[in-house]
Write a structure and sequence with these properties.
The chain is an all-alpha fold. The chain contains 12 helices and 2 strands.
């Protein structure tokens, strides 16, 4: 029979406890790691924090110091998730005002579909978030105040907001083609009876109103689909958190309001992350 020493029992069953001094070293190390753009406040923060914990649980003989924490991250840097400069700047801005930040994120989820709207993907999304958030300090966050903030950005020196561009026209157009509004060469009303003119104008007006309604409904539908897609991608750090997030819905009458559902799930996810932040090194 193989004997089991007290050291074996310790190594196999005991978690390394963290002291107050250890936690102070972790908090100090976070400053440098955040500057290096390790994700400590964004969607992959919990993954990175758990990985640091695992490294020091595995090597319990290594003292918890700022230098040792930085070295552990450097030695395993490919296993960690890092942020782009635009992402790092946004998460740093948002971490102390999560409720307001989530409101802005939810609003921008409705954009990015038509020319003239804000880009809401890639680094351009995070640059838009940061620029708007800075100009919204002291204001409520809604469609009107965001538009005013965008105007202030446009009239301030420095980086500018990113918009969906107008589609490029193919081929040159003559001056005659540019000025052509579709009116027949001899005019619309040549020998046209009054009752025919009125009927035609009414039909044209009704067709224009119907097209406008369809366009508005289509834009709302696209915004709802994008909000639903983003809401369904949100996950927690555990299966239980993910289950709670996926059961959270906001409704309008009997229909799911996906824009508000996205905002609510982002808020719940932020609360989960705060709870993890408090207890992440205290086991």
């Amino acid at each position: 029979m193989t004997s089991t020493s007290m050291q074996d029992i310790f190594e196999n069953n005991s978690r390394r406890p963290y002291t107050t001094a250890d936690e102070e070293q972790f908090n100090e190390a976070k400053k440098g790691l955040a500057t290096a753009r390790l994700d400590l406040y964004g969607p992959d923060a919990q993954h990175n924090i758990n990985l640091i914990d695992q490294l020091f649980q595995k090597h319990r003989n290594i003292p918890i110091t700022v230098a040792n924490i930085h070295k552990a991250v450097e030695d395993h840097k490919n296993e960690f998730v890092w942020l782009t400069p635009a992402q790092a700047n946004w998460f740093q801005l948002a971490k102390d005002s999560s409720d307001r930040a989530n409101q802005l994120v939810a609003w921008l989820a409705t954009q990015g579909k038509r020319p003239g709207q804000f880009v809401n993907t890639g680094d351009e999304l995070f640059e838009n978030l940061s620029l708007l958030f800075a100009k919204l300090h002291g204001y409520e966050i809604n469609s009107e105040t965001i538009r005013h903030a965008a105007d202030r950005v446009a009239h301030t020196s420095g980086p500018k907001l990113h918009y969906i561009p107008e589609p490029r026209r193919e081929g040159p157009r003559s001056e005659a083609a540019k000025s052509d509004d579709g009116t027949p060469f001899l005019g619309r009303n040549l020998n046209e009876p009054e009752w025919v003119r009125r009927s035609r104008e009414r039909s044209e007006r009704e067709a224009k109103e119907a097209a406008s309604e369809r366009s508005g409904a289509s834009a709302q539908s696209a915004a709802a689909r994008e909000a639903q897609r983003q809401a369904e991608l949100i996950q927690g750090a555990t299966h239980a958190e993910t289950d709670q997030l996926r059961k959270l819905f906001s409704t309008s009458g009997t229909e799911i309001d996906w824009v508000q559902t996205l905002a609510a799930r982002l808020q719940m996810q932020k609360q989960f992350n705060k709870q993890q932040e408090v207890r992440r090194f205290i086991r």
